[in-house]
Description:
Chain A is built from 15 helices and 14 strands.
Amino acid sequence: MSRRSGSAPATTGEVLHLIRTGEAATRADIGRLTGLSRPAVALRVADLMDRGLVAEDTAGPSTGGRPPVRLAFNAAGGTVLVASLGASRTQIAVCDLSGAQLARTDLEIDVERGPGVVLPLIMDVWADLLGDRPAAGVRGAGLGVPATVEFAAGRTESARVMASWTGVAIPPLVAARYPVPVFVDNDVNVIAMGEHRAAYAREVRDLLFVKVSTRIGAGVVAGGEVLRGALGAAGEIGHIPVRDGGGVLCRCGNVDCVDSVASGTAILRDLRAAGRQVATLADVVTLVRAGDAETMAVVRRAGRLLGEVVASAVNLLNPAVVVLGGDVAERFQPLVSGVREVVHRRSTALSTRSLRIERSRLGEDAGIIGCALMVTDHILAPDTIDATPAREPAHH
Amino acid sequence: MSRRSGSAPATTGEVLHLIRTGEAATRADIGRLTGLSRPAVALRVADLMDRGLVAEDTAGPSTGGRPPVRLAFNAAGGTVLVASLGASRTQIAVCDLSGAQLARTDLEIDVERGPGVVLPLIMDVWADLLGDRPAAGVRGAGLGVPATVEFAAGRTESARVMASWTGVAIPPLVAARYPVPVFVDNDVNVIAMGEHRAAYAREVRDLLFVKVSTRIGAGVVAGGEVLRGALGAAGEIGHIPVRDGGGVLCRCGNVDCVDSVASGTAILRDLRAAGRQVATLADVVTLVRAGDAETMAVVRRAGRLLGEVVASAVNLLNPAVVVLGGDVAERFQPLVSGVREVVHRRSTALSTRSLRIERSRLGEDAGIIGCALMVTDHILAPDTIDATPAREPAHH
DNA sequence: GCTCTTTTGTAAATCCAACTACCTAAGTTC
DNA sequence: GAACTTAGGTAGTTGGATTTACAAAAGAGC
């Protein structure tokens, strides 16, 4: 990673990385991989064990001599507080250091009540979810919010549905009660990162995540990092126009935005116009299951229109994978087929040569997992580990 | 940069960075900024002077005591070989370490003759251009090629106009004669990086460069880095379709690709269809100067159509600046106006809040400058400096 | 011209981190 | 169960880089 390529000795953070990735399972492995001497390895491992990040596992199998003590990343060595705020629902959880959920509650909170109400509520839920787990074990907090976020400061810039949240710096509010690093990002960015890290990180460094739900948004992972843009507004594909949209007026004032012709809202509208009795997406699912031709056609057309925009994005970004998520994409195979059809027709040959277009693997857990990984990614990064002293230099 | 934020002492590379950026101009400055002791500073500066990267300048003004010896980045401390290969023309130059051109030749080479012919020719020109300058002073080489490039290996993947160049790993071929680091990238990426580093780097980290010439392409700088995508094909916007293109058949087989309706080729075709006698873009320039209404309309329409694609890209990437380059964009103000008009109408409010849309500042030098900066960026990066020993440990 | 201030250089001392060398632990193999 | 093999720990030594302390250079101010 950030190793000074020459011959600088491996740092504690790099040793943790070897253990986390499974490249090294014993002290001897670490010595072989890094070229570090036994004492140096022992020092770093002891440091990591002091911090609770690494644990000695059962003894491994002998290969003819003393069996090695297996080292493993200690996911239980700390907890991460996460919350994924949505327009309709907020998911709140406590995760371990691997991002696995230890406890979770989904709440119907009216986010419009503003950060002064919602954040304390979330923090109370965190306290509940922590239960007996020591508060000192909390290593960080991560929130995904349906707004544009200036990531470095964790400040919401412009909220799509939460006017009361515009311009709020969230980390200080959380850190006042939980004095740990706090990370905040846009909800779709968080999901994109979650999908990437949890399902694709080993194979892929460039991923486009498209969320199709009530609205349409995207998150871009480029070169392994979330692409945020100048104001944190990257990925706002909802108001890119499509061709042959039929002249639908979008609430943004333009016509034929992909949001207005291919979102869940648009599908419901089109089905009602076709005389179908659909109140919610669940009704659409029923019609699809029943094999209703009109419904299939509407969904597939939405997929094709969305595919146009995805094709443009594929040409521009050249991702290795396009992941379609959000409740609409996750439930409707015809939509995914429609996207595939158009992308392979309209993107350049090179961009689609090895392009995969898939449905979300994480589903509705993506937000929670993404938030947790956003935190652990920073907290366990070699640079962060190396910048943090092993233990307090002076006690006072 | 990659400084282990804690309290690790500043490295030689970081000291060079301070001097290059002008943050520190004397040894005392460096001591103050880094917290390093005088001997430690002296050691690093001596190292940099040994390498020829830093030179003692005139003595600075005294502030009441001994006047400081001013330190300056020594751009003359080495040379960089650069070449920007184009379909119609190849620019070849020798630059100093600041990217300034020391000598340059533009050639009409038929790149189709293949790397076996063209590369030796370029290397001969470099030898000519170097003249009396010592070959040992060559620190690196950089090439921009009109092809998709796998950057890490410097291998061309898919060549747009140069079938004979497909799948060629260029660095070994150059390094055989000039044993220095060799960097190769797509021509538009190189120009985008050049514009960013040379004109915008201090203010902006996200930039979209669009080249409008015979064809249309783009280079993306995201978070200060060139975005390359999974196969190095990012930025291929030429075959994104526009709405209301009129059903023009593009050579890619689809209709209404922006390349087929807004490129230089398309403008010439449309003017001819309108009865204008235009052989080259120079004729179009004449007509624009003469204020020909039809010509203005055609160019402006091309701008508007291009603007649609740029607007989509702006929504997706949220750049701080859009730079329009290539000979068409550089010569035709109406095209730029057309882009501006549509982008501000069709991109989301947040993305355009502080968006600037400008013509290239570097013009036809962009390729050369970009190539030089691509090399110096790597060669002078703190990590590279620190990974390179000061002088040979053993002579043999 | 003398003193003060600021900058830079040099040498001895110190500190920190890693290494070598030696030792113990705990298996397998015969 | 004796010898071999591999893993892991400990202590003194070594090496490199940095710092402190001491000096010297070079101009400003009086």
